[in-house]
Amino acid sequence: MHFKKATIEDVAIIHKLMMDAFAEYANVKVPSTALLEKEDDIRKSFLHHKEEAIIAYDADKPVGMLRFKINNQALSFHRVSIDSKVQGRGIGKQLLNYLEYHSYQNGITELVCKVRMNVTKNMKFYSDLGYVISDKKILTKPNNQLLELATMTKLLN
């Protein structure tokens, strides 16, 4: 497994991984907005909002990615996406370990992500990696459905 910081040329790879990984949320009560994102939206986030991404490769095949932004000493990441054919093999954990190591090496002291509280496997995944709930919010989505989100934080030291 190796990891690469994505460039603007990798937007199609990022989008494909994200669509595959988030497809399981297409028919839930409150579908993920990730499924509405287009390649151009990701490109704009890179160019105008200082978003970055890391892609995980198994040999030369992209198998996972996450997107992130840095704000002072905090790094906020989202859209963690692992190819559905290889989920459950530890790729997500390796990707986050890579992110943590390189964040720490570059003076980042805090990692932050938002997690749907009803997706218990994701809550457990981040909790098992040392993330703790630092905030909770209830959002009202356009279809008037309520979505409970936890902000999960990990301090690097």
Sum this structure up briefly.
By secondary structure, this protein is of the alpha+beta class. The chain has helices spanning 11-22, 39-48, 91-105, 120-128; strands spanning 2-5, 52-58, 61-71, 74-82, 110-116, 132-140, 146-155.
What do you see in this structure?
Keywords: Acyltransferase, Transferase. With 157 residues, the protein is an alpha+beta fold. The protein has a domain at 2-110: Gcn5-related N-acetyltransferase (GNAT) (Aminopeptidase). Helices cover 29% and strands 36% of the residues. It contains four helices and seven strands; from the N terminus they run βααβββαβαββ. The chain has helices spanning 11-22, 39-48, 91-105, 120-128, and strands at 2-5, 52-58, 61-71, 74-82, 110-116, 132-140, 146-155. It has a seven-stranded mixed sheet with strand order 1-2-3-4-5-7-6. Strand 3 (61-71) and strand 4 (74-82) form a beta hairpin. Helix 1 crosses helix 2. It is globular. The two termini are 25 Å apart.
Beta content? 35-45%
CATH topology of the domain at 2-110: Aminopeptidase
Q: Termini distance? A: 25 Å
Briefly, what CATH class of the domain at 2-110? Answer: Alpha Beta
CATH superfamily of the domain at 2-110: Gcn5-related N-acetyltransferase (GNAT)
Organism: Staphylococcus arlettae
InterPro entries: Acyl_CoA_acyltransferase, GNAT_dom
Keywords: Acyltransferase, Transferase
GO molecular function, one term: acyltransferase activity, transferring groups other than amino-acyl groups
